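Quick one:
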Amino acid sequence: MKSRHAAIAITLLENRRPAGQREVEKPFEELHKILRGLDESRLKSQLSQGPGLPKKLAAELVGTFAFVLVGAGSAVAAQSLSGGDPFSSLLVTALANGLGLAVAVTATMAVSGGSLNPAVTIGLLVSGKISARDVIPYIIAEVAGATIAVGALVVSLPASFGNPAHWGSPTLATSVSAFQGTVLELLMTFVLMLAVLGTAVDPRAPRIGGFGIGIAVLADVLLGGPFTGAAMNPARAMGPMIAGSFFPSYWYIYWVGPVIGAALAALVYRYLLER
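Output:
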């Protein structure tokens, strides 16, 4: 009731201002509206501006290379050095993927937005944060970076280390169906995409670089690593499969699940959380 009375009082005071004063203030009000509109337009297209497309693609390739080199390499190392302890392997892989992605995203965020993931790139398109013409080139650069990274591992490590781990490729547990694996990848990528939008893309987000995104990946790997390998990233899955010549029949779940999960998270964030 008090707030209603206060609002009425303010309205009465506004109406009692001299007409000349109101006329003087009108141009400033119009200028404020224009500037606010320009600011909102700038934020909406923030990932479509800045460096040219070649620099963005270079950043996506290099960033994905760095992330997958660490992520896939840690899977090979864990398989070789854990002594058969599944918990140790899971913890090493989760930490390496989470921290590796956090560093790679932070390093490339100012240039390309630090997507480093075809599913996230599509999610950014759905949320209106990236230009449609950049999507296909981004995806190609990301898959290429991941493939080159695992190719470097194949060249630099003995096959006796890499082959048992399929060179870091995510694998589906024998007790998990392809449908279940797709749904789990969808759910984990949903969480990842929320972290991307909420901690890195939203202008209201705290300035923590890719740290929040890395933590989301770490948590997701601890959840889904034993069941699907917790890729949440088509490039992270395809790089080892291409470079390591490992193509399981269920390869498609690492595209379908993450892409749908990222798109759903983008819609939820755009229409329920952002506005």
